[in-house]
Amino acid sequence: MQAGIIDFLQSLADGVLFGTTYAIIGIGFTLIFGVMHKLNLSFAAASIGGAYLSLALLAVWRAPSLVLLATSAAGGAALGVLVFLSCFRFIRADNALAPLMATVGMLLLIDEAIAHLTAGVPLRYPALFPDVMLDVGPMMVRSDLLFVFAIGCVATSLLMWLLYRTRVGIATRAVAQRPVAAALCGIGIGRVNATTFALAGALGGVAGALTGTAVGVLSPLLTLPITVKGLIVTVIGGLGSIPGAILAGLLVGGFENIIQHFRGVSERDLHVMLLLFAFLVFRPGGLFAPPAGRD
Amino acid sequence: MLELKGLSKHFGGVKAVDGVDLRVRKGEIVGLIGPNGSGKSTTVNLVCGVYPATAGRIMFEGADITRLAPHKRVRGGLARTFQNIRLFQRLTVWENLWVARNTAGQGEPRRLFGNWVGGQRAARASVEELLEFAGLHSKRDMVTGALAFGEQRRLEFARALAAEPRLLLLDEPAAGMNLEEIGDLRHRIVDLRRRGLAVLLIEHVMELVMGVSDRIAVLNFGRKIAEGSPAEIQAHPDVQAAYLGDAEV
To answer: Whole-angstrom Cα distance, residue B64 to residue B39?
Structure first.
């Protein structure tokens, strides 16, 4: 019995720590939804794409971990801007479906590009952090997961600082709330939107690298499950809410790891879907539904 | 300063604005009145670029701005307020003014992370002045959604001024105000003229329009049916007919 509780806590801790990556992906979805009021389904694929770009750097130079993270972030940001230009900038905003379908196209394109360039073979992703087991009371904590968690916290804090303390961030929030009024206050909406895609993309690139290092490999097969998890996190957290995405990411991470431990990996996603179903039925607005209404 | 030439906006078959000519000179307050649905708000939306014009031209300080993006018009010196208040509800009072101030007066697109130190100091100082102007100094860190209606109106007025416009479009600024607030608003508008701003005032409250306007233009069914001094407009038979709904016009 005692061992069961420890197992439970152990899986919970591992899952919550890994859930950081879900939280970041969820923040990305939510951030873009905030300014565009449209989903960008290619976001998780672009995040993995960013991580692949850092692997490309690794092929020519044994870069230190921080440089790899930064490259992945930069790659994610570049892909984010590319997605903005190809799926949103020149497509009429009042057409609800066109940008959405365009982002599905980008998701498939990025997937295919990766599959072709790597011949469909999963590539090993290096350990960015020293891999030690730390004894915490009766439990063991994987130090690399602790690093994943720490980097996730730093990246999220940086984003919050940008959004709440800098003028580009305040402008971003203004556009998210009232795009027309923002334009009529002299804010260049296109530029703010592009910046948001770059920021979200950079965050996604970090998440991609963290996923790579936690899983140990990168594969184009990762994009779909991460897209689905990211969307689930976004819905559970409340579309448009950053605190919601963070909380939901950790929740889903912990929940799925507990299920995986006690019910096996084959049942894991089933239960995550049931969790989503429960939210859609009982709390469709998510944990923190932001107030509606914009012009 | 502002010149509309044959400005038209058609929504499908509806001619919301139909060949309107209008001039606003520097330091002048021009009233734009007309019954509901006569095209006043559409005219404002055309001038500030919310809608593209179907036909006609908009000239501002000698330049054709008919096809210019809205935010560039603002940066060029043309700001507005809204009939139904459109503040950034979840930003603080200070942030509302700050975002608007940061786009001021440059004419050129600003670098997003550009000129941090010097530019920010000047901008912060002028946000303080605007807080003073709006009488919201003590509420600077409040979220604007929590402000009283009259305070929101004053803040929106101040936010429009934050862009340092040379022409201000006021879209029914007195809507929902009591007499005392309207008196205060009147002083503010007259004060703008003293500072050399031009104002295009759309308003239903006749005491206000008649009291402050140098000239008044009247719209009905998207067309300009009269223009002249307040006294001329009040005596104009077509205007009286339009407001009384006389079918013989």
So the answer is: 22
